[in-house]
Amino acid sequence: MADKTPVKATFDSAGAADGLSEFVSGDTVPITHGGTGLAAIGSAGQVLKINSGANGLEWGSVDGDIEGVTAGDGLSGGGTSGTPTLALDLNELTAAVVNVAADSIAIIDADDSNDNKKEAIADLITAIAGVGLAAASGVLSLDLNELSDATVNVANDSISIIDADDNSSKKESIADLATAMADGSTVTATNGVLSASAGASLGIVIALS
What we know:
Elements: E1 7-11, E2 17-22, E3 47-50, E4 57-60, E5 69-70, E6 75-79, E7 86-88, E8 104-109, E9 115-120, H1 121-128, E10 133-136, E11 139-142, E12 158-163, E13 168-173, H2 174-181, E14 187-190, E15 193-196
Antiparallel strand pairs: 1-2, 3-4, 5-6, 6-7, 8-9, 10-11, 12-13, 14-15
């Protein structure tokens, strides 16, 4: 069937129908008589809504409708159509000058249902400082006072030294240290134990004031 030219009712000033007339292109049907008051449809994606004067209908976007999702620093993804998603992208973060006394890092708290939290670097350093280490404002330092006493085994134990040949921290066995101190003739070292050779004499110097 072909489209037909519709007819419309005519109304008097009181809103009562007083007759029929042919529908003319461009005419509109007011909302008071079941129409929209509009002469054309809107564009793609628009909806029919109440106008700002609350006295008619219009085509437009609904206020508050999300038109796009933008991924900020540390995030990837986003979009302006469909169902945009975001993903964590730590490579997008900028470098920082670390302040170990005041800065914080992100952690997964195993004690709180793997909840995401932040923790101060200073608190982290304090938690990881073990025996022989002290922590203050996020900085670790050597603290030999924390070490416990040991029963010395001169044949097998080692001590810490600073190697003057490369100024690095190293360990050396007590036995090797004793051997290095022995002159090999009057004093010898065996398994870290020093001893004087037979016939060797020890001189004692007494200073009188």
